[in-house]
């Protein structure tokens, strides 16, 4: 009887949680978010950048391309330029940790916001609450 009760409790716990407890992945949810940004690139962010909160960034954007890759703040960066906006995903081991959206704020700076990823128990990519993000070209 005790074994049956334990089994039923375990089954109930498994059913109560979402089928996927994995955090958002760059290749799935991240790619979908970036792909939804459709405008042609109007800015090029290629090069070295500095952020007071995040430290040094190195971004790579080929001339005429929308895709951006790089690293900064201890994270791998995957992004896309849509219009005058840079959409970035900060990840470790292909797991989304932060999302950011920045746009030109003067000649050599970008300003916008970033937010943490949602918890493993919630669907979606990143939280709605955000914090300011500023980057200056080096």
Oligomeric status = single chain
The proportion of strand residues reads 35-45%
Instruction: Indicate the structural class.
Output: alpha+beta
Backbone CA Rg: 19 Å
Alpha-carbon distance between the two ends: 69 Å
Number of strands: 8
The secondary-structure element order is HHEEEEEEEE
Major sheet strand order: 1-2-3-4-5-6-7-8
Poorly predicted runs of 5 or more residues:
10-21
Average pLDDT value?
85
Shape: globular
Major sheet, described briefly? 8 strands, antiparallel, barrel
What is the count of DSSP helices, taking H or I runs of 4+ residues?
Answer: 2
In helices, the fraction of residues equals: 10-25%
Task: Walk me through the structure.
By secondary structure, the protein is α+β, with helices and mostly antiparallel strands. The chain has helices spanning 2-16, 26-35, and strands at residues 47-51, 55-60, 67-72, 75-82, 85-92, 95-104, 109-116, 131-137. The chain is built from 2 helices and 8 strands. It has an 8-stranded antiparallel beta barrel with strand order 1-2-3-4-5-6-7-8. Strand 3 and strand 4 form a beta hairpin. The radius of gyration is 19 Å and the shape is globular.
């Amino acid at each position: 009887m005790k074994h049956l009760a334990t089994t039923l409790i375990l089954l109930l716990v498994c059913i109560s949680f979402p089928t996927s407890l994995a955090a958002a992945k760059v290749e799935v949810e991240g790619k979908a978010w970036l792909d939804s940004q459709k405008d042609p690139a109007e800015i090029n962010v290629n090069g070295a950048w500095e952020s007071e909160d995040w430290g040094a960034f190195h971004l790579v954007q080929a001339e005429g391309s929308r895709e951006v890759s790089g690293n900064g703040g201890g994270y791998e960066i995957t992004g896309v330029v849509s219009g005058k906006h840079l959409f970035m995903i900060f990840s470790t081991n292909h797991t989304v940790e932060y999302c950011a959206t920045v746009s030109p704020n003067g000649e050599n700076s970008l300003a916008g916001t970033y937010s943490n990823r949602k918890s493993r128990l919630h669907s979606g990519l990143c939280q709605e609450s955000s914090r300011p993000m500023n980057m200056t070209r080096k």
